[in-house]
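Section 5.1 Outputs to date
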Amino acid sequence: MPRIKTNADIPDIQNTIDGFPKKYIPKVGTRDATLPVKIIRKDGTTNEGSGKFSMYTDLTSENKGTNMSRYRILIEEVVKKDGYYVHEVIKDLLHECKARLKSDNAYVKIKFDYFLKRKAPVSGIESHMDYRGNMEGRLIDGKERLYLTVHVMYASLCPCSKEISDYGAHNQRSVADVTVEIDESKGIMWIEDIIDIVENASSAPIINALKRVDEAYQTELMYENPVFVEDMVRKIAVELDKELDNRIKDYSVVVNHFESIHTAVAVAVINAGRELK
């Protein structure tokens, strides 16, 4: 059997002061630790699932290394205390990092799946849609900043294809990644609000369970609402502009159309022109 050792028996290599380059490290930590998380939906229900936690701090040029085990221990303690709710965990982790890991700056990101029930447009049958997202917190020079990213899939139909063809038009599965900097003092920007902005701008939302009557409706809806990738990113930005200096401080939008008649992907990116690029 291994001999049980005490801390006094074990050298603390991270705290040695010699034999390493004296360079400042802006981010060091742990990535993708999986723990249970909860997120409050706009209707008051709770989305439960697993979250991928990444947490980093900075390291001064005078310290050889950080204590990696403390990151996971800290995540476990805060998650247990806050009952797994993402918006609470993020803030507590930032400030606990600064206080207990003795860092100047801290970064926390939690990636998660986000499920909503969607009804088919004609039959009304329900199915789950997975939107995915992440929340990120940064505590830099004493200033706390919070970000929300939502990954929204949708259908797009090509306006050019529709115009030049005698019948039909090519369409494809597409995705928008929308990141907003949150200003909670002025209200909540719900995940559902971002999903609605994207889906309302698209040719049609994606719904997983469809009967024939629903498929016919969706096909014709796409045909009536063609959008280029440039159209999508602009339409989303116009709606986010209305929230600037209200519920959000900044935004960035990345749109990808996985073209059905090309091997390449059509991409458009737009931001508020502030700090998010």
